[in-house]
Amino acid sequence: MRKGLACMVAWSLMASLVYPATAGAESVQGQAEVGNVQAKSLHFSVPYTDLTGHWSQSAVTRLQDLNLLKGYTDGTFKPSQVISRAEFVMILDRAFGFTGNVATGSYADMTSDDWYYDVMVRANGSGIIEGTDREHLSPQQPITRQDAAVMVDRAFQLSAATNEDSEQLKFEDADDISSYAKKALTYLVNENILKGFQGKLNPKAPITRAETAELLSAMIADVKSTPGTYESRVDGNLIIKSTDITLKNMVVNGNLLLAEGIGEGSVVLQDVTVTGSVIIKGGGSHSININNSKLNRVVVDKRGEPVRVAITEESNIQEMHVKQKSILEISSNSLIDSMNIHAEASQTRMDTKGTVQKLSVDADDVVINGEKVKQGLRTSMVGEAQQPASSQPGGSTSVTSTPTPSSPDGQSPSTPSTPSNPAGEKPVPATTIPHDQWELIWNDEFNGPSIDSSKWTVQDTGLVYNNEMQYYSPDNTRITKDQNRSVLQIEAKKGPKNGKDYSSGKLISMGKGDWTYGKVVVRAKLPIDKGMWPAIWMMPTDEAHYGGWPASGEIDIMELIGGKESNNKVYSTLHYDSVKPDGSHGHDQGSLTLPKGETFADDYHDFQVEWLPGMIRFYVDGKLHHEVTNWQTKAAGQPEYYTFPAPFDRPFYLILNLAVGGDWPGAPESNFTSEKMNVDFVRVYSYKNLDTWPDVTTNPIEPAQQRDPQADGNQIYNDRFAEGSADNGVPLQWKFITNADGAGSVKVVTDEQKGKAAEVTIDASGTENYSVQLTQMPMYIKKNKKYKIQFDAKASANRTIMSKLNQFEKSWTNYSDDNTFELTTDWQSYDYTFNMRDGTDNNARFEFNLGLDDTTVWFANVRLIEVGEADPLTVERNALPDGNFIYNGTFDQGKERLGFWSSSIQDSAAANISVNNFSEFPIMERQLVVDVTQTNGDPQQVSVNQPDLKLEANTTYGFSLDAKADTTRSIDIDVVSSNGHTVQVHQGQNLSLNQEMKTFTGEIIIGDGAPIAQSELRLLFGSSEGKVYVDNVRLTKRGKPLSVNGYAHVPATEAWMMQGLQLEDSVEGGKHVSYMDQGDLLQYKIDVAQDGVYVLSARMASGKSDSKVQFSIQDEQGTTVAQSDLSLGDTGGWQAYQTVYFPGVNLTAGKPYYVNFEGADYNTRWVDISQNKIQNSELTADLKHWELIPNDLTASHDEGEGLTVKLPGTSEHWWDALLQQGQIKLDANKTYRLTLEASASSPKSMQAVLSQNAGDFVKYFEEEVELTADQKSYTYTFTMRDSSDSAAMLAFGLGYPLSTGEHSIHINNVQLYEVNPNADQGGQPAHVNLIPNGDFSKGKEGWFTHADGNAADLEMQVNNQQLQAKIGHAGQHPWDRQVINEGFGIQQGFKYKLTFKAKAEKSRKLGLGIGWVDAAANYEWHGFFGARVDLTPEEQEFTFTFDATEASYANTRISFDLGNIDGLQDGNTTVSLSEVSLINLGPAN
């Protein structure tokens, strides 16, 4: 609610909610009875006898007029009567019309007979009311003031844009407020809706009927609940709860709530202005239409089926939040300043021709203009109406149909204006590279009347980082005068703005100014008050490339942290590399401090950065204060770093902003009102001599060594402590440091054995191991070198110390890891080695850490020496997350971008092998380039190889690569095994290349031998001379052939071959196969046990209306035996699956077949293959396997058209004429699908029955089929009971009489086959193992270990389809050693059976759990089931059944706990697991 509205109703609030609530005389039971009367009464008598002169009379009358609140039949209102939770929900429901649903019987204190049952269920499902505990909703309990506030806040959703606890509530009883209610109460108090009384808020006192009336009267100005067109001004909050409502020429001076009561209907906003928020909770596919309207903030939060929101006719929305899956349509002349598609809004689809100045996509499976976009996308979209008439060629940072103009190298084409300084203004000082070597290519002198929109996008968003406190508003940015300067001014102000307590400004140049390398100069005067955080910085145009922030890189040219202690200091920082397990990431920071007495608010300063390949220098007023020449980055889970100088080797854009508060500066002072950041100009230069700059690919510019090592190579100076001490006793070259409550001293002493030694006396051991330190720097530690540290030490009593070598300041990277040593009272020699994996450091620090123990320590003979090259990195060559066994198949990682690749050029051949590097804005593309200049024509003459592949024996792999050549020629592909396996390569010889990049695919079959074939992939180029280009090399494991014995269910991921596809998490559990495009292939290899007709079905989803499925089956010779095309269309989103059935096909037992899925724009979850149990389903003329009763009926058959039976029309019962087939085998508890095509010459009924063929003739299925003159398809599904039947009968009862007399029935294509019980609802298959590779037939695939501390304490291997977990030390807790399989779904409300076999070398317990880990909530475990079993050396089978009562989860894990359960005896043993199976048994009872 806006402040203006709050002032309007303040007069009534002073007299209402300021009074403490008092309970009436009735008991809780009495209140429930009163509630029943109130809920059902429609009594309208006013004024009520007990309201005359009462302070709530006006509010009560208003709510009664709105049909929200009623009195009692005795003519009273009972204003002091407390109100129950159910009564309060009923009132809210009258305004909003809640539509949520929850499972019946969820709460023990409600039954379906209760008057409030329906509304409580709906409100609970809508998230308005939650239980007082897991089993109780407490409907008859009086509602407290804080719970009433929470429910109102959930219904209105107006505090969503505010920070929780953004302002401490100043009431004596503020600590009594429950944590869940703080945000709601804070909002209502700050908006003057709620007030306290005598300094107290009384949050847990019950609220009365009068207080309820005042609260809701202040919150609700009007409710529209009947269809129609409304044209009026509304001051306050307007609620729409009916479909078919049009608001026209209306101003809502408050908030507009399109409530759930709209259902799936439509609402039109025509020429509407809303000053507050528009909350969309209802609406369906017919849409919410927003036409020519001006809206401040829109929130789309409609649960269930997605709502369609159409924004047309020059509508303007400042801020839009999409919080649920939605369908958005934006016309070409509409404008949205800021749109955020939140993580919960996965599968949202947006079709836009309009302008979105800032778009943030935090959800997955979002489709924009028919193209699926990456989660984490940050971009802008230029509408068709805003597009220039023509544009220069190039890439674009926007998701638009017309690219934003950009030059080929990613630098935005711009004609810079001529910079001119005011008279007497200082010139821009030179940086390291002289002025004349730079060329101005882009600038803004801020001399115009307003901010230049062709260069900047002014942000209008509440999206901030680092817990900052501001809303970014265009109102806070302007062009103004500062004396004789024309400047950009960004102002931070105190005061509410869109739910924030402060507002400020932010400009970005993305898509309008993007550069790779150059110099940036920004002249600015900075704010310095406490809480101010001005920044000039750069971010990558394609932030997702290189793995997303921080691995994608960030260049902070200038940051200042306001406050008296730091108003003269600025920072410059690089951010890079992925986040480590401890939460840190790579960064390199420098700073500059002005002389004492000066601040950055006194005058304008020039903040400069020189950015060149492998070197970034930061300056203030021409003074270099920070230079970085070394960094490295890789995406999470990637085995090798991207080749230097990634990530700072592609386009970045510029950002100017002024943040308020946050993690670094803290909040402003309470008396803060306003501060300004003035920017005089921004100038961007290109380096004229870039083409002569050294090539730093792979090789960073090494920092200069600050001091040489000693003659013997030792980098430690005064290593024998014989060179004297400082006045404080600290040995020369060393530094003694105390931290964290540590205290002590050091001195050099004479020792009989060592001569001289350093004696460290500890007076206070402190709270950390670094509380007492003896250190030395600068050490020069080079990347990819190995170092050894040696020292002699003893202690006055046995104790532990720690030593390490780490980065000084910056991110304090620990290069050597912590090395712990046990000292004794005797001198001993100690040493450790480490490999330097990080970038070269010329300022590293060596440390002895002596805290946590006050025992005296002596040191002597300390050495740090380089001992050679670092040990080779050991990379376990498992498949990458996308299934590819080829590492660096995109040629952008490792040395010279050729990490994991080697080459071979025979003596009689010559070739140059490299990786090219060119711009495809906004990223850089790389390709392997092999230039063969001499060869005898043997392909083996020149090869590029990837060794160390661990491939499996008797396994088929598929390969693919993209390739082209300067001239027509061929290349070859080969794989060799070093341990004797035969290898067959299909489609790998004589790949014909031309000048067009094409994709080539084939198969590689590894023969018999050892389980693992140590293999090498070879790309052979020696067949002819010329230049070849290769990219995207892939080698993926083929799935196993699928044998079908009646029925088979296979997850889509277990395909025989996938080409051009990826795997993604599925909302239905496990993963699905995604990104199907033309030319891609999803293939399964099958064979069948019996001849017959087989029906294939697949679970598929698409977010595009024109998606198509091309289905075919081919035999081993490539002959197509079945083929069909299906227009799948938009199923409702990329994870909104439908089960698709394909026509049956005749297959022959013993022959292999290939089932192919091709086409475009769909995802696949699983495939079912099932044999038709009906013989002669086409009902051929001989009626083989069928029987007509009576036998005098006449029938005819038309080829391909089925059977026509003539009937007399004189029969009495359906069984008087039968068409039947017996000997049908049906299995207990299996689900079957019956389909047929049928019609009648005149409309009539036909009975379809499946039953026993003898005895009691028990019916398994019976349905009356209504036939028409038009042939139709009929489908029925049924599930067998607990008994099987090997000779069931299918009968079609044709004998229903027909008054018209003689007639005919036509039947064709009868099919009966087994299906997944929940196939059409997307549920899990029954009686299918949900654990991927639970039988270990694929070795360790899908299984992984967790070992807290030392990974060597749990080793896993698989032999003969049995997993063996070798346990060393068992740890402290059961979960410290775990074997885990993750990636299957558990569905609430279903019963599951878990079975596995296990044993241990010695008896011990085994824990097991099925659930999921919430990493964001400190790895909280959410369990569906858990148990412990006793293992013995003899293998046992364990079986458990359980009901899934918790909420469904699609990515569940099973964890076997192998840690410390019984004690030390749990370690030093091996536990074996096999035949792990989890089966869905169907709905729980």
Automatic annotation (TrEMBL):
It comes from Paenibacillus xylanexedens. Residues 43-106, 107-166, 168-230 form the SLH domain. Keywords: Hydrolase, Signal. Residues 383-431 are annotated as: Disordered. This is Beta-glucanase (GH16 family). Residues 397-690 form the GH16 domain. Belongs to the glycosyl hydrolase 16 family. Residues 1-23 form the signal peptide. Residues 1048-1175 form the CBM6 domain. SMART domains: CBD_IV (SM00606). The keyword Endoplasmic reticulum does not apply. It comes from the Bacteria. InterPro entries: Beta-glucanase-like, CBM6, Cellulose-bd_IV, CenC_carb-bd, ConA-like_dom_sf, Galactose-bd-like_sf, Glycosyl_Hydrlase_16, SLH_dom. Residues 390-420 have a biased composition (Low complexity). The keyword Signal applies.
